[in-house]
Write a structure and sequence with these properties.
Helix 14 (305-315) runs antiparallel to helix 15 (322-332), helix 17 runs parallel beside helix 19 and helix 18 (367-380) packs antiparallel against helix 19 (386-400). The protein is of the alpha+beta class. Strand 1 and strand 2 (65-70) form a beta hairpin. 54% of the residues lie in helices and 8% in strands. The protein is globular, with a radius of gyration of 24 Å. It has a five-stranded mixed beta sheet, sandwiched between helices. The chain has a two-stranded antiparallel ribbon with strand order 1-2.
Length: 493
């Protein structure tokens, strides 16, 4: 595996997967690499640096937002390259009694999150069977709370990390966050999850903890022992250890002796219905709400007509919560045409499910009806989140180009995304030249401005004839080094 392959493997799983970055890494990685290591990281060259990044908000359950940034192509390539080259420092679990899962490389490629999470769930279940008591907790706003110098010093202290990489690490995170020392670690991409997961390994390694078993997935901790006083003492020690790095436990997600059986006893009526409809389904709650509850593929593909009808009936429940709707959609993915009539309701009520809805739209056969349903949703509502608009544009690009009223949808998304730069960039990078989009992009390109709107517009020109495309990129390319890199990439597509 290479840096480019690492990036490509993770791309579909990221929060805001812009094709501009895909094309840059796929077609232009050698030039990006040269620019970073010969210009940006050259201490004698003060003209080139990592740029401050665009703030974005992804959706979480119950109306909460996940604050992060969308990395530009240079910044995104670098963090994948840096972590890939230093992948040896991201190790496995400390021991069979100090277990940690996920976000590392094994056998030449990154460990799949779903695979790691299933192993984590199994380990938690084993701990509940073996020990009488358990404390479960997570860190409050973990990624947003890490302090720049703590992570930098941890990385620099690794024996396998070169001085050059250590300095580059500090410079990178300082500059992409415009000098702020907190809230600097991007979320939703695998290399940063590797960093966040491995940074907490110091808890696993400490010799002061006495619990018989500790199981961790990122910042979700589970302590097991037969003696509740041992667990309580370790819970206090871990808080003190975390406090040395300015990290705090989330009180609302701390549970004592809350087992899988306890969770099953307190399931909602909808969740109880799910258990009754899909017998292999089970629910396990994690401290930080990692939404990776999976069902075996054969279960999803072998639902009976009666089970499908029962699940569709549940979707109509006015009290349906996002977590329940998400699980229903997981089951119904192989029966997506049945979900079509529910798309407007799902879009309106569950913005957190946009990636699930995207996956379902791939296999909906009635594309014109799908386009009409999306347009109705856009016309009937007045408030939208950037995450919704971004993924609706992605649905149009991936599944609806040339179908029905797709052009009207793109224009509507462009209008609605005036306050959301990344969602608007998603629309602009789609290589549709009709409906006035060629002229819209031309306005951004001819000024020579250097931001996401012009970068995405440049990539969106790639379907033009070469002469017309090259003319449109001429003045844009002179605006900045980033503009030049992107314009050269656009000429290759």
């Amino acid at each position: 595996m290479s840096t480019v392959e690492f990036f490509k493997a993770d791309f579909p799983a990221t929060l805001f997967p812009l094709k501009t970055n895909w094309y840059m890494v796929d077609k232009h990685s050698a030039e990006i690499d040269k620019y970073i290591y010969q210009k940006v990281l050259d201490e004698t060259n003060e003209a080139d640096n990592f740029l401050p990044q665009q703030r974005v908000y992804a959706t979480k359950p119950r109306g909460h937002l996940r604050r992060t940034v969308k990395l530009d192509p240079v910044a995104e390539y670098f963090i994948y390259d840096l972590t890939f080259r230093n992948r040896a420092i991201f190790r496995g679990e400390v021991s069979t009694t100090r277990r940690s899962f996920g976000y590392k490389f094994a056998k030449g490629s990154q460990v799949l999150v779903h695979t790691a999470y299933r192993a984590y769930k199994a380990s938690v279940a084993d701990g509940e069977k073996e020990y009488k008591h358990k404390i479960q907790f997570d860190i409050a706003s973990y990624f947003n709370s890490i302090y720049h110098h703590d992570l930098m010093n941890w990385f620099a202290g690794k024996a396998a990390v070169s001085d050059a990489d250590a300095q580059a690490f500090g410079k990178y995170f300082r500059e992409i966050n415009a000098g702020r020392s907190v809230d600097f670690l991007p979320q939703g991409i695998y290399p940063c999850k590797m960093l966040g997961n491995e940074f907490l390994k110091y808890i696993d390694l400490t010799g002061f903890l006495k619990s018989s078993l500790i199981v961790r997935f990122m910042d979700d901790f589970n302590l097991f022992d037969d003696d509740p006083s041992v667990l309580q003492q370790d819970f206090i020690r871990i808080q003190q250890l975390l406090g040395q790095n300015g990290l705090n436990i989330n009180p609302s997600k701390t549970f004592v002796d809350k087992s899988l059986e306890d969770v099953q006893d307190t399931l909602s009526e909808v969740q109880k219905s799910l258990v009754a409809i899909v017998y292999e389904y089970y629910h396990i709650e994690t401290a930080s709400g990692v939404e990776l509850i999976e069902v075996e593929e054969e279960v999803k593909k072998n639902l009976s007509p009666e089970q499908i009808d029962a699940l569709l009936a549940l979707l109509k429940d006015e009290t349906l919560e996002e977590s329940d709707a998400e699980r229903i959609l997981i089951f119904l993915r192989s029966h997506s045409d049945s979900v079509l009539e529910h798309i407007p309701m799902l879009l309106a009520r569950f913005p957190n499910l946009m990636k699930h809805i995207h996956a379902i739209c791939e296999t909906i056969s009635e594309k014109k009806e799908l386009a009409s349903a999306i347009m109705k949703f856009l016309n009937d509502n007045s408030f939208f989140l950037e995450f919704q608009l971004f993924w609706l544009a992605t649905i149009v690009e991936d599944f609806l180009m040339g179908v029905g009223i797709y052009g009207e949808i793109l224009l509507k998304l462009y209008e609605l995304s005036a306050d959301f730069k990344i969602a608007r960039a998603k629309v602009l990078e789609i290589p549709e030249q009709g409906f006035g989009f060629k002229e819209i992009r031309g306005e951004f390109l001819k000024t020579g401005q250097s931001d996401w709107l012009s970068w995405a517009s440049a990539i969106g020109t790639h379907s033009l004839k070469p002469a017309e495309r090259n003319y449109a990129l001429t003045y844009f390319s002179k605006g900045s080094t980033m503009n030049y890199l992107i314009s050269e990439c656009a000429r290759k597509i």
